[in-house]
């Protein structure tokens, strides 16, 4: 199923897993400043516009787990579906040193239009998928850059993020990943695992649904080979972590 704001792959797949991909796309709809945020193709291909490599990884992971996958069809710079509607970073004006000209003077009316046009349909579709499954496990897939401007390099190939109020499955997943001797595994890095109003908060924490957030360093998945390789590695790890957790 494809909508202007989201795409769903394998809606009828029967697994408990639900793979979500909030930052799948760097697309800018034509009705948003003529389809151009004013930052150029080089910046639109960077992590500031979307999570590099995560869409292909998520699609393949969904196939392997026989689970549905939902992906956004718009850049996080247009409006960020992984933010609450009262979050000041819902529409970013500056990101990792880059000014976003099309957002510089965005007003409340335009933000509300983007919410109605893109943000709300995505979240309604995500919630519909989650509510349709028994004992759903929401797996939010993201990627992060090896280094932010002016910051130290990030050593982790993978990070697992979670809210400290609901951590059982994430702890089981971390324990399983730490048996992979070739990986540097981060726990609630490179970001903190709980942001009020984010996708996990909206669709998992408030309903008591099992969940985890997977962050992959994007130089690991910037090619089809890397995306397929990580999906094929993660699918059995997720399955084993769930079995070991007894959840």
Strand content: 15-25%
Number of domains: 1
Mean pLDDT: 95
Main sheet attributes: strand count, strand direction, barrel closure: 7 strands, mixed
| CATH-defined topology | Aminopeptidase
Number of strands: 9
What is the SS-derived class? alpha/beta
Spell out the helices and strands N to C: EEHHEEEHEEHEHEH
Superfamily at the CATH H level? Zn-dependent exopeptidases
CATH class: Alpha Beta
CATH architecture: 3-Layer(aba) Sandwich
Strand order of the largest sheet: 1-3-2-6-9-7-8
Radius of gyration: 17 Å
End-to-end separation in angstroms reads 30 Å
Give helix % range.
Answer: 25-40%
Care to give the gist of this entry?
The protein is of the alpha/beta class and 247 residues long. Helices cover 32% and strands 16% of the residues. Helix 2 (54-65) crosses helix 6 and helix 4 packs across helix 6 (224-245).
Descriptive account of the structure:
The structure is a single chain. With about 250 residues, this protein is of the alpha/beta class. The chain is built from 6 helices and 9 strands, in the order ββααβββαββαβαβα. It has helices at about 40-45, 55-65, 110-130, 170-175, 200-205, 225-245, and strands at about 5-10, 15-20, 70, 95, 100, 135-145, 160, 185, 210-215. The strands form 2 sheets. A 7-stranded mixed β-sheet has the order 1-3-2-6-9-7-8, with helices on both faces. Helix 4 links the parallel strand 7 and strand 8. The longest helix has 24 residues, at about 110-130.
Topology:
Layout: E1 6-9, E2 17-21, H1 40-44, H2 54-65, E3 69-72, E4 94-95, E5 98-99, H3 108-131, E6 137-144, E7 158-161, H4 168-177, E8 185-187, H5 199-205, E9 210-217, H6 224-245
Parallel strand pairs: 2-3, 2-6, 6-9, 7-8
Antiparallel strand pairs: 1-3, 4-5, 7-9
Helix pairs in contact: 2-6, 4-6
